[in-house]
UniProtKB/TrEMBL annotation:
Keyword Nucleus: no
Main location: membrane
Pfam families: CADH_Y-type_LIR (PF01049), Cadherin (PF00028)
Protein name stated in the entry: Cadherin 11
Classification via PROSITE patterns: CADHERIN_1, CADHERIN_2
Record GO biological process: adherens junction organization; calcium-dependent cell-cell adhesion via plasma membrane cell adhesion molecules; cell migration; cell morphogenesis; cell-cell adhesion mediated by cadherin; cell-cell junction assembly; homophilic cell adhesion via plasma membrane adhesion molecules
InterPro entries reported for this sequence: Cadherin, Cadherin-like_dom, Cadherin-like_sf, Cadherin_CS, Cadherin_Y-type_LIR, Catenin-bd_sf
GO MF, any single term: calcium ion binding
Subcellular localization: Cell membrane
The Cadherin domain, residue ranges: 79-159, 160-268, 269-383, 384-488, 488-605
Record organism: Dromaius novaehollandiae
Alphabetized UniProt keyword annotations: Calcium, Cell adhesion, Cell membrane, Cleavage on pair of basic residues, Glycoprotein, Membrane, Metal-binding, Repeat, Signal, Transmembrane, Transmembrane helix
């Protein structure tokens, strides 16, 4: 007991809290030993006895971050069966055993060999056991105990983020929540004030404040203006130990941005804008731009532009370019410098989105004056009308005036204008135009039934500036005149039965007129006056542009007459009316008792004329036999003709042919075989063909006879030339005659007239005087030779 009291005193000095726990186990043959760390003590000099237990469960404490030179004594374990003779050995196992915590196996003292950090590990669970030193036999069951690391304030507060970003609308009320920042402390919150944090603001006054306990940042000033300052940097501190001196602290930066609200109206930087535009500008062309400045951004800075007043409201328009926030002034209609040289506009710029909270800052709009001057430009001519429509009667005489177009030069120079027709629109050249005054006239008669409308284009150009050109469409309507008589609407062919009854209708006819409806219907149908009392048929005008034809009598016979031609006069309703006589073909047909058509041919009564079918067949057979005989006769006769190939034994070199027609010269091979005139060397290897006459013969026209000698030779020659030109059988034929060999010589000598011994005295040219004026020169040269000789 004395030893236990000493251990108890030692543990109290170390400041270790004592907890005991015993686990009792009944062992029938030996006492229950006890393993304990210290004993409780009562009054001075009095020892409190306790009941014995096998193990005493202990909980030890050790301060973190101990930096002394010697290991820290954590506590001591002791067993009741330990008599101090050293036979008991204490063994320590569990978390950190042998590394952080070591035990003296004889005394049971436990030491911490390393510095402990509670934030790294708050407690360790260990197991102690007493065993026999010699045999290592457990003397008691193992027992667990806990070593807790006692906290000290060794960790400063840390914020979740190093930097925070927050937004708050500008002009927010005081106390508006911006953002909440949060810091944490790794120290034990259950032990002291090491983890009790207090927030404060180091930078950012007087604009913002922070709640000490929650870390909520709020606005501290009213009417903060984004346009004056948009971004604020605030530094927040978190300090432990409840904010008292000696506590550790941490800081974070908060960037607060003021978001925009529509608290500023748009403003024009100037009161008047000056612009100019050419009168040649086309609608939609940009004239200029205006811009109202709004310091707000985003949709709060959107500005819409409109024209609210001015003398150019109808001539100009303005649109908004939302990318540049500018108002774009554009031309709406064509301008005329000569009519008006300047315009004035009042333009308004207004915010698109207005915040009701700041309506008192309004009005959120502004106005400006825009003055636009019109610049003169060299303009093309302008027609007085955008298009023209004229009328002209068909069949009007050439040169009829159709209408007149007029254009003028809009410029101050007022140049003269010249007119012309675009010939691409008048390919047939029906019209012409006076280049000076623009009068359009017809060139030829127009036919409405061919073209009812003519669409042409007229050009107008300035005389001194040909590039300035204008074009206008002109539509010319051809007015109908009654120049077409009505005709049958179709090629009618009627049929009437032989047994037709009197006054029986057998066809209804109608008419068609190419003229306009005003000169066409209503049509009037009638019979010609000479057959108004036709004994066979009658006509009734139905007064609806149709007419019905009736049978007047009964008893038609195909044998007597199978075809009737009925003339019908059709008149139109034009002024003056026109009419035409149309012939209706009516065939007589055989019908049954019900009036159904059976046959319209004349075979029945032809057979009754006395010829039977057999007789007709015999006649046809005779005709065929005669045709066969004729064909055979012609064939045999052709075979007897001279063959086309000339054989040597049949080669006749001298023939005397008498004919009363002028010869064809060397081309005439019918009268004389000229094949012998070819190269005699090649005659053995080449058998020539006789020339081939045309298949048809020319029949001389009556009246083309040779003229007598008393007739003028000029007329005679012309007559013969005309006869030869119109004679398809006259040579030369479509053949080629080759004379490639001149010959080796002739016994008869040359036939050339150049070697003729005939003298001029043997020739008499007096007859040339009778050949007419075309041969006068020739007659003078040859016919006057005797006279000349006499004179000499």
């Amino acid at each position: 007991m004395k030893e236990d009291n000493c251990l108890h005193a030692a543990l109290i000095c170390m400041g270790v809290l004592y907890y005991s726990h015993a686990i009792a186990t009944d062992k029938p043959n030996h006492a229950r030993p006890s393993l304990h760390g210290h004993h409780e003590k009562g009054k001075e000099g009095q020892v409190l006895h306790r009941s014995k237990r096998g193990w005493v469960w202990n909980q030890f404490f050790v301060i973190e971050e101990y930096t002394g030179p010697d290991p820290v004594l954590v506590g001591r374990l002791h067993s009741d069966i330990d008599s101090g003779d050293g036979n008991i050995k204490y063994i320590l196992s569990g978390e950190g055993a042998g590394i952080i915590f070591v035990i003296d196996d004889k005394s049971g003292n436990i030491h911490a060999t390393k510095t402990l950090d509670r934030e790294e590990r708050a407690q360790y669970t260990l197991t102690a056991q007493a065993v026999d030193r010699n045999t290592n036999r457990p003397l008691e069951p193992p027992s667990e105990f806990i070593v807790k690391v006692q906290d000290i304030n060794d960790n400063p507060p840390e914020f979740l983020h190093e930097n925070y970003h927050a937004n708050v609308p500008e002009r927010s009320n005081v106390g508006t929540s911006v953002i909440q920042v949060t810091a944490s402390d790794a120290d034990d919150p259950t032990y002291g004030n090491s983890a009790k944090l207090v927030y404060s603001i180091l930078e950012g006054q007087p604009y913002f404040s922070v709640e000490a306990q929650t870390g909520i940042i709020r606005t501290a000033l009213p009417n903060m203006d984004r346009e004056a300052k948009e971004e604020y940097h605030v530094v927040i501190q978190a300090k432990d130990m409840g904010g008292h001196m000696g506590g550790l602290s941490g800081t974070t930066k908060v960037t607060i941005t003021l978001t925009d609200v529509n608290d500023n109206p748009p403003k024009f930087p100037q009161s008047v804008y000056q612009m100019s535009v050419s009168e040649a500008a086309v609608p939609g062309e940009e004239v200029g731009r205006v811009k109202a400045k709004d310091p707000d951004i985003g949709e709060n800075g959107l500005v819409a532009y409109s024209i609210i007043d001015g003398d150019g409201v109808d001539m100009f328009e303005i649109t908004t370019d939302y990318e540049t926030q500018e108002g774009v002034v554009k031309l709406k209609k064509l301008l005329d410098f000569e009519t008006k040289k300047s315009y004035s506009l009042k333009v308004e710029a207004a915010n698109v989105h207005i915040d009701p909270k700041f309506i008192s800052n309004g009005p959120f709009k502004d106005t400006v004056t825009v003055k636009i001057s019109v610049e003169d430009a060299d303009e093309p001519p302008i027609f007085l009308k955008p298009s023209y429509i004229f009328e002209v009667q068909e069949n009007a005489a050439s040169g009829t005036v159709v209408g007149k177009v007029h254009a003028k030069d809009p410029d101050a120079a007022n140049s003269a204008i010249r007119y012309s027709i675009d010939r691409h629109t008048d390919l047939e050249r029906y019209f012409t135009i006076n280049a000076e005054d623009g009068n359009i006239k017809t060139v030829k008669a127009l036919d409405r039934e061919e073209i009812a409308w003519h669409n042409i284009s007229i050009f107008a150009v300035e005389v001194h500036k040909q590039h300035q050109e204008a074009k206008v469409p002109v539509a010319i309507k051809v007015i109908d005149v009654n120049d077409n008589a009505p005709k049958f609407a179709a090629a009618y062919e009627a049929f009437v039965c032989e047994n037709a009854r009197s006054n029986q209708q057998f066809i209804t006819i109608t008419a068609d007129d190419k003229d306009d409806s005003a000169n066409g219907p209503r049509f009037i149908f009638s019979l010609p006056p000479e057959i108004i009392h036709n004994p066979n048929f009658t006509l009734r005008d139905n007064r609806d542009n149709t007419a019905s034809v009736f049978v007047r009598r009964e008893g038609f016979s195909r044998q007597k007459q199978d075809l009737y031609l009925l003339p019908i006069v059709i008149s139109d309703g034009g002024l003056p009316p026109m009419s035409s006589t149309n012939t209706l073909t009516i065939r007589v047909c055989g019908c049954d008792s019900n009036g159904s058509l059976l046959s319209c041919n004349a075979e029945a009564y032809i057979l009754n004329a006395g010829l039977s079918t057999g007789a007709l067949i015999a006649i046809l057979a005779c005709i065929v036999i005669l045709l066969v005989i004729v064909v055979l006769f012609v064939t045999l006769k052709r075979q007897k003709k001279e063959p086309l190939i000339v054989f040597e034994e049949e080669d006749v070199r001298e023939n005397i042919i008498t004919y009363d027609d002028e010869g064809g010269g060397e081309e005439d091979t019918e009268a004389f075989d000229i094949a012998t005139l070819q190269n005699p060397d090649g005659i053995n290897g080449f058998i020539p063909r006789k020339d081939i006459k045309p298949e048809y013969q020319y029949m001389p026209r009556p009246g083309l006879r040779p003229a007598p000698n008393s007739v003028d030779v000029d007329d005679f020659i012309n007559t013969r030339i005309q006869e030869a030109d119109n004679d398809p059988t006259a040579p030369p034929y479509d053949s080629i005659q080759i004379y490639g060999y001149e010959g080796r010589g002739s016994v008869a000598g040359s036939l050339s007239s150049l070697e003729s011994a005939t003298t001029d005295s043997d020739l008499d040219y007096d007859y040339l005087q009778n050949w007419g004026p075309r041969f006068k020169k020739l007659a003078d040269l040859y016919g006057s030779k005797d006279t000349f000789d006499d004179d000499s």
